[in-house]
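wait is this the right file?? whatever heres the structure
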């Protein structure tokens, strides 16, 4: 009987880390069903002993460390303990963050570069993240694996006389991205009235725009708030951090059958506009794009359908669970014979 490959996933607490929940925890059953023996451990916090983790690492075929960068000393002892060391990332982790605001960090960049030289493989949430790794370690084995979204039934586009709802979903600190396009939202609203729905843990602080509602985010209701809207938006500043984003918010809109308007940053053009799922815009382009879609329910329905089909083909939990299982088995098997 073929021996099951064994994997230790070392992750952040999923209560505070969406990445752990979305990229590891929700795929565990599928990985076990695919014949991979998976164990989980939380990443040691400052001051905690690394001994249990290092002892466990020595007993498995591979260790998958997720996202968080660690000191050079901890990289070296993890590398020494692990037979094979893999890394999963879905953000520009070489950037620093203070109060959720990214900044250029020499410390993080040095830690990232050091870690890349001691890996056997990396799983990247987007092509941009893969390119960053390849720029440091060209021969490292990498795979692109987007963050998955749940699968829903096709949207029933019924024409109504209700005010169109434009939805934005995100964490509180990122509400500033919506506040930054307030003037363009106002211009679009003047051309074609709509209600802006903010789903977050912080309400916006608009100067004058008043056609909005706030829904407190919670995990069980977020998709209801999206699915009952007509259009999803994803404004982003263009910087070193946002270019590493994996368009997860857009995929959430798309799986609900909503067309998307997003900033032309990172992977958005490839996954949104090139699939016919919406429009990508540069600064100053929000009014035109929103007005175009708000005034044309047929186009909204067409793009929403394209987005839904794109998710069914490439981004559902089922599709990416299977892809993750294949990727991990291939990485472990390939690396094992080197």
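ok assuming it is, sequence goes like this
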């Amino acid at each position: 009987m073929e021996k099951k490959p064994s994997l230790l996933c070392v992750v952040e607490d999923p209560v505070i880390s969406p990445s752990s929940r979305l990229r590891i925890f929700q795929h565990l059953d599928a990985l076990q069903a695919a014949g991979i023996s998976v164990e989980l451990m939380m990443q040691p916090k400052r001051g905690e002993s690394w001994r249990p983790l290092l002892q466990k690492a020595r007993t498995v075929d591979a260790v998958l460390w997720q996202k968080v960068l660690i000191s050079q000393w901890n990289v070296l002892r993890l590398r020494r303990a692990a037979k094979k060391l893999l890394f999963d990332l879905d953000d520009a982790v070489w950037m620093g963050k203070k109060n959720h605001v990214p900044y250029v960090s020499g410390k993080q960049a040095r830690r990232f570069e050091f870690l890349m030289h001691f890996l056997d493989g990396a799983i990247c949430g987007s092509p941009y993240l893969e390119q960053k790794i390849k720029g440091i370690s060209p021969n490292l084995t990498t795979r692109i694996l987007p963050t998955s979204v749940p699968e829903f039934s096709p949207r029933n586009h019924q024409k109504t006389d209700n005010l169109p709802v434009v939805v934005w979903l995100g964490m509180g600190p990122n509400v500033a991205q919506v506040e930054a396009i307030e003037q363009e939202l106002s211009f679009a609203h003047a051309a074609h009235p709509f209600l802006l729905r903010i789903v977050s843990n912080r309400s916006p602080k608009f100067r004058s725009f008043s056609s909005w509602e706030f829904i407190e985010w919670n995990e069980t209701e977020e998709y209801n708030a999206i699915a009952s809207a007509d259009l999803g938006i994803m404004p982003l500043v263009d910087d070193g951090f946002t270019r590493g984003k994996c368009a997860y918010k857009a995929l959430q809109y798309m799986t609900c059958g909503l067309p998307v308007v997003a900033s032309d940053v990172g992977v958005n053009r490839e996954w949104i506009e090139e699939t016919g799922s919406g429009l990508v815009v540069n600064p100053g382009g929000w009014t035109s794009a929103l007005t175009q879609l708000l005034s044309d329910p047929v186009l909204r329905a067409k793009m929403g359908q394209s987005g839904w089909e794109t998710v069914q083909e490439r981004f559902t939990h089922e599709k990416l669970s299977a892809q993750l299982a294949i990727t991990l088995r291939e990485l472990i098997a390939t690396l094992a014979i080197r």
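The chain has a mean pLDDT of 92. so i think its the right one actually
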